[in-house]
Design brief:
The structure is a homodimer. The first copy, chain A, is about 45% helix and about 15% strand. Chain A is of the alpha/beta class and about 350 residues long. Chain A is elongated, with a radius of gyration of 26 Å. The first copy, chain A, binds a DNA duplex (16 and 16 nucleotides) through helix 2 and helix 4.
DNA sequence: GTGAAAGCGCTAACAG
DNA sequence: CTGTTAGCGCTTTCAC
């Protein structure tokens, strides 16, 4: 089992010193054409690849960034991941992937284990905004010069760079539109209160309702957790209300599925018997000819942006006092499911 | 910006030598209770975490495995990834994630860049089974003692461990069932020929048809590429045939969506106007009350198994002459979409 | 433009 | 049980 060649073997083969080999490999300083050729030939011949651990130890830096994702199998996060990997290998960075399964304890463990790797930076969608343990660890990274970028969710601190979207505004406009076309009884199935997305989307809803002088009725504001089952149950509750809503806003992709499941069982068609507008587009539904209206955003781009932020921090040594908050736009896409039911069917 | 503490600082703080610190940290050999306590206290006090690069350089081994995935945003692969990460952190291994976007050239680049990291092992779903360049690189890993596990797809070599599923058998049984309940004109939309899953699923179809003395009609065997658009077009073609099939087998999740899109446009209901059986279950469809029958398998488990295989290879130093091939079962789940159309509607 | 040599932080003999 | 020391492979002064 042949070992990987090291820099000494290359130096010997090329008849130069290891310093010269290093210079050629890193383009770090001028080397004579002749020596450069010889080194390159040796590298080729011995199939040499520099040892990252050694390099990283020597320079006390690395080429890896840690990415912490709460639920890898959720399409939203895998699209995020897609964007992250795309940008990362454009920049020559490698991704250490960690999953927390929405579990704070696992998140702490993961964050601890990441320290061993002397990462260049960290991109994380934290489980909760209010977790002091996580916050402490993130501050610790920054204190050690390892930039942290929060993605989609935030924490109770303004110290980090963040990439988020205009959820509030997106939902505001969506509900505005619902009201404009005649809806008055508009419900929302919310996300977890401990997360920015959950809170902001609810806020957009409330803002719009209030702006139009519509009451915020408790029975129309159903607490969800971004999961299908809970949303399904809440949708059923809404539909069986004495005075059911004519429209439901669902706060994320899973919530939308929960609503659709409930509607399916009740025989309700969206845009005809009941209006539904969701947060985050679901490509699959278009293939199935669902005319779902959504507040949409470019998810892979969010991941890309997070990567670029990291890069920017890596390049400008300076550490800003406060993190920058990049807010990507959302877009209201109307496909028909927002329509006011023609007749009272509920 | 305080730097991470190193082993010398711990040694000084604890009043012992670095060797003792190392011993405590790695539980590598006995240390007196007293010293152990002092070291642990120092570690705690200085918030020490060992430097992985140094450790890895010193031991010329590492704790990371490379995972190469062709399409991170495809739910199938993100479920695979979910299983992989689950198993990996149970084993204390870290994941270097690489995406190839089904592009062979990127795959080669990725494989090259992975060599720098001196990984413990590699798990890969290769873009193509017939790519000599990829094959060469994979052999290279094995030659250097870095085990390679192929996941879902294989390559033209028996040298590596593989985790696959009984696709052939699964499809065979599915088509058997179609025939049993009365279907005779059964079509298939295939996957890429250059991949094991594509080939095997087609084979299962052919085997069943032949076993029942049914002809393999060219116009019923439509070449697909596991993508929605192509499947959609092929489904349309099938439905407009002079003698259209009564049942279609779709070779993967995306293909299934393509069929459903076509059926939606044509106003065909599965299990009523036309039968559809797909490979790989799609949870979302159940929420939407689709009664899709599928050949199903435990996808996260496939990822877990791949990880376990790697672990096994890592523990038994011996390198087997041939890789082992682990074949996980598939299961036929009948939900109604397989039913024979009552009347000729096409 | 080039080479010698001093680390980077850790592990693993080897002596005691 | 404990400490000393020689690397692991590479980068980076510092002389030449």
């Amino acid at each position: 089992m042949k070992q990987e060649a090291n820099i000494y073997e290359i130096a010997k083969e090329a008849g130069v010193s290891i310093a010269t080999v290093s210079r050629v490999i890193n383009h770090s300083s001028a080397v004579s054409e002749k020596n450069k050729r010889r080194v390159l030939a040796a590298v080729e011949k011995l199939n040499y690849v520099p040892n990252n651990a050694a390099r990283s130890l020597s320079t006390s830096t690395s080429t890896s960034v840690g990415v912490v994702i709460p639920d890898i199998s959720n399409p939203f996060f895998s699209q995020l991941l897609q964007g992250i990997t795309l940008a990362s290998d454009e920049m020559g960075l490698n991704i250490f992937l960690f999953g927390t399964n929405e579990n704070s304890e696992r998140e702490h463990k993961v964050l601890d284990s990441m320290r061993e790797h002397r990462l260049r930076g960290v991109i994380i969608t934290p489980v909760s905004a209010e977790d002091g343990e996580t916050l402490r660890r993130l501050h610790n990274f920054e204190a050690r010069g390892i930039p942290v970028v929060l993605l989609d969710r935030e924490v109770d601190s303004t110290a980090f760079d963040r990439v988020v979207t205009a959820d509030d505004e997106g939902v505001f406009l969506a509900v505005n539109e619902l009201i404009r076309i005649g809806h008055r009884r508009i419900a929302i199935i919310t996300g977890p209160e401990a997360s920015r997305p959950g809170r902001e989307r609810l806020r957009g809803y409330c803002r719009s309702m209030e702006a139009h002088g519509l009451p915020l009725r408790d029975e129309y504001i159903r607490k969800g957790n971004f999961m299908v089952q809970c949303a399904y149950e809440q949708a059923l509750v809404l539909c069986s209300l004495p005075e059911p809503p004519t429209a439901i806003f669902s706060s994320n992709n899973m919530t939308t599925y929960g609503c659709l499941k409930a509607f399916g069982e009740l025989g309700l068609r969206i845009g005809e018997d009941i209006a539904l507008v969701g947060f985050d587009d679901i490509e699959e539904l278009r293939w199935l000819n669902y005319n779902l209206s959504v507040v949409s955003r470019d998810v892979p781009k969010m991941g890309e942006q997070a990567m670029r932020h990291l890069m920017r921090r890596l390049e400008n040594e300076i550490r800003p006092e406060h993190g920058t908050r990049t807010c990507l736009p959302t877009e209201l896409i109307l496909r028909g499911s927002e329509c006011l039911p023609k007749k009272k069917t509920l």
